[in-house]
Amino acid sequence: MANFILFSLLIVSLPFLATAAPCGGSCGDLNDCDGQLICINGKCNDDPDIGTHTCGTPSGPSGGGGGGSGSMSAVLTLNDFSEGGDGGGPSECDGRYHANTERVVALSTRWYAGGSRCGKMIRITARNGRTTTAKVVDECDSNDGCENNIVDGSDAVWKALGLNEDLGRVPVSWSMA
Fold first, then answer.
1. What is the pTM of this model?
2. Consecutive 10-residue runs of the chain (177 residues): their mean pLDDT?
3. Strand pairing of 104-108 and 72-78?
4. Which CATH number belongs to the domain containing residue 150 in this structure?
5. Coil, helix or strand for 159?
6. Which of 56, 75, 76, 81 is nearest to 66 (CA)?
7. DSSP classification of residue 125
8. Same domain, yes or no: 105 and 148
9. Residue from 106, 105, 111 nearest 148 by CA
């Protein structure tokens, strides 16, 4: 009987004895990570939504949260950055329009980070395994209808990834190149 009680106490207390994973630690959900860290792609990382810096770099991919590989899950949408295209006015970063043959993107407001990624290259990976790079030239304004997880890519980006543009939205991952 004493063994049964001891065993029962051990089973009941096991969840309280478990420690949360630190930066880069393996995780399955938010509760597996320490403090304000969140689980992204199976690893505990800084939360890009609240800007934690526990893991040593600003939140977001590679100076942007995502840990290890720095890869962030996103939705790739199609944008026409040319004059008269659905992108509206000229790009925020350089005040220019861009041909559909250029591999360029607009990032959601939180990833655009006040323009700190302007002119920088990102690496985009589609679920079909194909990868390309593209230059950040614009913001997909989350305060004006753009979702928080968007990489808005040109026709050239979609073609380089071998994606069907008629889909309009596809899951991808991205990181700084």
1. 0.63
2. 48 47 73 67 67 50 45 94 89 95 95 93 96 96 86 96 95 94
3. unpaired
4. 2.40.40.10
5. helix
6. 56
7. E
8. yes
9. 111
